[in-house]
Each structure stands twice: as C-alpha cells, then as structure tokens.
Amino acid sequence: MGSGGDLPVHELLRTCSTRLCLPKDQTIHVPGTKDTNLYYIEEGTVRFSLNSYDGDEKILYILGPGNFFNEGSICCPQEVMCHIYCEESSVILKVDSTVFRTLMKNAAFVEALFRGLMCKNNLLEQEVSNISFKSCKERLLLIFVKECCKDKIYDHDWYDVKKRYTHQDLASIIGANRVTVSKMIGELCEECQIRCLNRKIQVNRKALKRRD
C-alpha cells in the first residue's frame, strides 16, 4: 500500500487496519503481554492501570477517541507493563507492524503519533507533580475541574462534571480508598467547591477560576 497521500489520519487508518468492536470491561492487554501492533481508539474509552499484589488498582490514565496506544512495543518490542481494558464499549483500530512502517512515511500520521506521545507524557508529568506537591483532596478536586463542561452554567455558579466516576475509580486515581474519597467529597461540598445534585457532581466556577 502507499503512504496515504493527504488523507486525514483517521480515514487513513481505516483503510489499513483491523477494526475491533469490544464490549465494556474487555481486557486488551495484561502485564507481560507481548504485542507488536499499534492501536488507535476510534470510539469509546480505554483505561490503563497498574495492580498491586494485594489487588489494589492505580489508574495511570484513561484515553478516548483519537488516541494511540502500544507505540513503545511496536517501535521497540517489549512486554506490556500495565493492565489495559475498555472502560465502555469501544471501537479500536489495530495496525500491524508492517503497515506501521509504511505509515511512518506519512507526515500527518507521524505528527499525530508524536502528538499522542507528548499528551501521555504530559499526563504522567502532571501526575508526578500532583503526587509530589498536592494533597489527596486537591488532586480529587483537580479531577473534577478537568472534566468540567462549561457549555452550560447552573444557578449562576455551577458546572457539570462530564464524566461519572465511582468512588473506587477516584480512589484508584489518587491513591486512596473509597472511605477517604467519600470523606473528601463531603469536605469539598462543605467548602462549596463542589456540590452533589441528583447524584451528579458539579463544580463551583470559583474553583475553576482558582485553577485557570
């Protein structure tokens, strides 16, 4: 096949990949897996996490449509280090190593690939910074702030949080337990930084301004 000319990256990948329709909670990789394919998320979200010997989960990041993963293994074959699975029903495009080498001749593809790598690098740098300098409660609030939808404001002061997290999800992200998360959510509500309305979290616009 050719390198794809001026086709948009998404359309280009559709022409040279295997389309996988995966259900919620479908495992894609477990630690120790060897896989030299590149993956692209077309629909849905994919979670990347580490598990302790006791079974505790630490979420590294959650990627949505337009993101690649397994870039490291396709460039330099190695074992997968984390547990990768679908957080919801997802459509994944799988690109084999031979096709990948051809795609590397396409400037738009290379740019998209490196943009994705930089995005993940930034996420991990932010996580290291948060762990080093922010309390658990500050990190919890930051999760809600990042997921705010500013399209609509309620009661002049409140924005919806787009993504719904369970207390276990939040505990896995910030490195705490569910009881601690429940307590911190209560404290943030008392401080009027967030509120729970109809079982949904909303963030006060003043909390957003302090972090802009």
TrEMBL record:
InterPro entries: cNMP-bd_dom (IPR000595), cNMP-bd_dom_sf (IPR018490), HTH_CRP (IPR012318), RmlC-like_jellyroll (IPR014710), WH_DNA-bd_sf (IPR036390)
PROSITE patterns: CNMP_BINDING_3 (PS50042)
Molecular function (Gene Ontology), one example: DNA binding
One of the GO BP terms on file: regulation of DNA-templated transcription
Record domain Cyclic nucleotide-binding: where: 22-104
Keywords assigned: DNA-binding, Transcription, Transcription regulation
The protein's name: Crp/Fnr family transcriptional regulator
Native organism: Hungatella hathewayi
